[in-house]
Amino acid sequence: MTETAPPPPGTALRDHRGRPRVAVTGIGLVTPLGLGVAESWAALLAGRSGIRRITRFPTAHLKTTIAGQVTLPEDAAGEVLTSPVRVERMAVLAAAEAIAGAGLPGQGRFPGPLCLGMPPVEVEWPHRLALARQALAASAEPPRYPALAAAATGQRALHEQCLFGGIGERLAARFGTLGAPLEITTACATGASAIQLGVEAIQRGEAAAALCIGAEGSVQPEALIRFSLLSALSTRNDEPERASRPFEKGREGFVMSEGAAALVLESLEAATARGAPVLGLVMGCGERADNFHRTRSNPDGGAIIGAMRAAIADAGLEPGAIDYVNAHGTGTPENDKMETLGMRAVFGESCPPISSNKSMIGHTLSAAGAIEAVFSLLAIRDGMLPPTINHEVPDPAIPLDVVPNLARPAAVRHVLSNSFGFGGQNVCLVLGAAPQA
């Protein structure tokens, strides 16, 4: 690849490769800790867990009965929301907060594309049961697949709800984003991938702004059972708040969760021209693929290490300039071991502090990379490192400063945010402080 000529000295609106610098001018959050940035961030710094027993569906006979659940107004009213509906409604809440914070029009006129990271969409049991009831009404015979398919014929609303691109189309229409919306799913790296799409569009000069969203609503029976069959989930059901234990010796799996985050990205030039608040910069993106296994990383850690190094280099930094690492930190024995390997390979003996917000909100899957990017920006803004809670017995195989149990003040200018997905889909982001006036 041909290297872009460096910008002239003093060109503050361009990065070391001559590309437009990418500013974050608005952020929005929906997490099990609360609706909105302020509520979620305050709870995170307080070390409060959002993991609870599942109340949304029966859990008898399941190995795992805990999760991070977001309580929406519709939940309080007793409405049953399938995952596609939940993803869309959380994405709307996060996006509206981010757009308002950026000082842009709330609906109909967003000045750039939509980059949406979301989970795969499928027909769920509430859909199937509704179709079965319709089939039974038409015949006394127990409904089989042909009868269910016949009952679904002509149901446009069901088809559009379960169409992968449908959510993006509706969000694009609601917020008036430009061009065709981009929807992507890269497993647990999805939220970071959505941000990377927006960053690269701005760097190429194809857009002055981008609305980047990561959203996840898969706390539902089938998804829970599938992850359980992979032996990936914690079964510490009697102590939900203590179940997620990244980097701790007693860790035994992640806790499923849901939520959404939105970031308004703009070229620094466009943001400065309109006097927008600049919360920070997305300075670098790095991605590497690893086709070793569906759920496990290659033991050599090559893709994880490569993604971290690529993000730091893309930001024009050396590893020593990273002040803090927002960990992928799922709490599975495999992930935490491999992330430690990556940290030692990239930073040597002088690793910066690293902590996992998944210890408090669980693993938000498709939303995780975006949520963690927002938390990284807040760590820079407030000079506070969120803790890794439930760190009771250190693992001697993980010689890292994991900011155990209590938040910590620190001078933070550059954060590396890691997202390592199933199937070897790895994306890392470098977030930086806003330029000094």
Describe it.
With 437 residues, the protein is of the alpha/beta class. The protein is 33% helix and 18% strand. The chain has helices at residues 37-45, 73-76, 83-101, 125-138, 145-152, 156-161, 166-175, 190-203, 221-229, 268-273, 302-314, 333-347, 358-361, 368-382; strands spanning 22-31, 34-35, 51-53, 66-68, 114-117, 182-184, 209-216, 259-267, 280-289, 324-326, 354-355, 384-385, 408-409, 414-421, 425-432. Helix 3 (83-101) packs parallel to helix 7, helix 8 packs across helix 14 (368-382) and helix 11 crosses helix 12 (333-347). Residues 1-10 have low confidence and may be disordered.
Helix-strand layout with pairing:
Elements: E1 22-31, E2 34-35, H1 37-45, E3 51-53, E4 66-68, H2 73-76, H3 83-101, E5 114-117, H4 125-138, H5 145-152, H6 156-161, H7 166-175, E6 182-184, H8 190-203, E7 209-216, H9 221-229, E8 259-267, H10 268-273, E9 280-289, H11 302-314, E10 324-326, H12 333-347, E11 354-355, H13 358-361, H14 368-382, E12 384-385, E13 408-409, E14 414-421, E15 425-432
Parallel strand pairs: 5-6, 5-7, 10-11, 10-14
Antiparallel strand pairs: 1-2, 1-8, 1-9, 3-4, 7-8, 9-15, 12-13, 14-15
Principal-axes shape call: globular
Uncertain residue segments: 1-10
Name of the CATH superfamily of the largest domain: Thiolase/Chalcone synthase
Give helix % range. Answer: 25-40%
Radius of gyration: 21 Å
Keywords:
single chain; 437 residues; Peroxisomal Thiolase, Chain A, domain 1; two-stranded antiparallel sheet; globular; transferase; Thiolase-like; Ketoacyl_synth_C
